[in-house]
Amino acid sequence: MKRVINLVTAVDNYLRWNWRFYSFPFRSRLAKPDMLTNTHAIRIGKKVEIRKHARLEALGDCSGDKPKITIGDGTSIHFYFHCGAAESVIIGPNVLIASRVYISDHDHDFENPDVLPVHSKRLTSKPVVIEEGVWIGEGAIILKGVTVGKRAVIGANAVVTKDVPPFTIVGGVPAKVIRKLNFIKES
């Protein structure tokens, strides 16, 4: 019975979302999002699960031939995820993202003394890349221009403002290296 329910849910998700997104393959799931902006510029990979209350926002001109937000195969995203991309946010395959995580490749322009940020239409942006197998903890924030290396771990409530090397645990505000992961390969 469980297999039948899973199949029905998969078909329902595919029919509901496939036509809206740049790519939304069969067996991916998106549960009750709070906000979707320019979904035709968002690519969802195979077997991706995005839980309730997500905000996926591709901003600005989305007429290009490549997506602004890419979520890789097998990625699992929990409740209240918020991702905004004015240029490019790439989340690799098999990434685990906890609840209340915010990822953005842009800021509002606040450098002009004559225009308040709330009235500024200008954004400054730099691409964000999250590589394969990364684990992002509860409430973490990843800001513009950051690359998070393969299998890195971002601690809960960390604010990541600089690149994170592969196989590294970071935490704090701003995030700093806590330690390197040493995976021992047995022969």
The average pLDDT value, as a whole number, equals 92
Q: In sequence order, what are the helices and strands, one letter per element?
A: HEEEEEEEEEEEEEEEEEEEEE
CATH class: Mainly Beta
Q: Given the structure, what is the number of helices?
A: 1
Give the amount of beta strand, in percent. 25-35%
Secondary structure: helix percent: under 10%
Q: What is the radius of gyration computed over CA atoms, rounded to a whole number of angstroms?
A: 17 Å
Shape by Cα distribution: globular
Report on the biggest sheet: 8 strands, mixed
CATH architectural group: 3 Solenoid
Strand order of the largest sheet: 1-4-7-10-15-18-20-21
Count of structural domains: 1
Pick out the low-confidence regions: none
User: CATH superfamily name?
Assistant: Hexapeptide repeat proteins
Distance between the termini: 42 Å
Instruction: Say how many strands there are.
Output: 21
CATH topology, by name, is UDP N-Acetylglucosamine Acyltransferase, domain 1
**Class from helix and strand fractions:** mainly beta
Question: Which key terms come to mind for this protein?
Answer:
UDP N-Acetylglucosamine Acyltransferase, domain 1; 187 residues; eight-stranded mixed beta sheet; 1 helix; mainly beta; 21 strands; six-stranded parallel beta sheet
